[in-house]
Hints:
There is one protein chain. This protein is mainly α and 211 residues long. It is built from ten helices and no strands. It has helices at residues 27-33, 53-67, 73-92, 108-120, 128-135, 139-150, 154-169, 177-183, 189-200, 204-210. The longest helix has 20 residues, at 73-92. The radius of gyration is 20 Å and the shape is globular.
Amino acid sequence: xxxxxxxxxxxxxxxxxxxxxxxxxxxxxxxxxxxxxxxxxxxxxxxxxxxxxxxxxxxxxxxxxxxxxxxxxxxxxxxxxxxxxxxxxxxxxxxxxxxxxxxxxxxxxxxxxxxxxxxxxxxxxxxxxxxxxxxxxxxxxxxxxxxxxxxxxxxxxxxxxxxxxxxxxxxxxxxxxxxxxxxxxxxxxxxxxxxxxxxxxxxxxxxxxxx
Length: 211
């Protein structure tokens, strides 16, 4: 892996046939991650041939999402972007310093507002930046604060709520699984089935038969 500044020419020689994935990270995402660091500025070092398992895993997740047509939506991608930005600032900034690990949980009122916003936008494509703004926090700070308050990441919490809504809707025998998936905020029936099984341990069809 390499870290490069956008739109700058460079020449790389490959010894074997190679497929290249390019991930563009906006400066705004990096600036938000600064709220969780002690650094006054961003100055990432250009690096090549990196062996970074954390960054590799994040890239693998992004490539998988691309192959699946980004079924998990913008909310999930926002979380990956925030994680990548925090990792880059922590380990590859010219003046890298230790980032604070203790951010504290949310106040009950702030948490209630964020959960209410999730519930209201369960069917739509809610952005992580919008939730963080509701809490008055940077994106990366919001993720960790939310997890400390609920024991789950915002994305895990959102999926749980979508599965709960799907379970409620499936009680109506007239609703098809395709309709249930759409009304619960999933990309399609296949996407709902995959998440539903991960959360409950059974398929939507098996759950409906058990009612």
